[in-house]
Write a structure and sequence with these properties.
Number of helices: 9
Number of strands: 0
Radius of gyration: 20 Å
Order of helices and strands: HHHHHHHHH
Structural class: mainly alpha
Length: about 200
Amino acid sequence: MCRTLSAFPTTCLERAKEFKTRLGIFLHKSELGSDTGSAGKLEWGSKHSKESKNFSEDVLAWRESFDLLLNSKNGVAAFHAFLKTEFSEENLEFWLACEEFKKIRSATKLASRAHRIFEEFIRSEAPKEVNIDHETRELTRTNLQATTATCFDVAQGKTRTLMEKDSYPRFLKSPAYQDLVAQATATSASASSCSLAEPLCT
């Protein structure tokens, strides 16, 4: 018969709860726009210790490569929260907007969204102007004359490279992420030991 969550050792549950609280505080100010969908939402799911372990592994994977961070919804949310502290969240928001843009199949919607992205991130003095060179800005402007799903590729690529070489290393060295790593390591180890000591099912 399967045990309930209350059957797990108190220390295991406390570690998982503390880790969730710490990450929640870290992501507290992360509010991504409509173009980024639910990427800014923390996805814990079940409070089961297995979920805590999987989430801990996710946190630890963010330091392995920038791709792993971008492929994790929680990683994107955490990185976005960090970028907001540096007032450079527009780079990630632009990258995410481009990813969503590529999924559009309607030519009419594609053109409409392309101009909206250009006005928000690319044009000079845009509300969330990204840091790209003049040539890339003009190339993107030209691409909009015949909108395709790849018209932002060059600008998106340069923005991604900038984040990977500049913001990403600082994110990994930030006290907030280092604290998360420490908690993730402890939670992962605790979940493993608890699993061995107290099997979920008997």
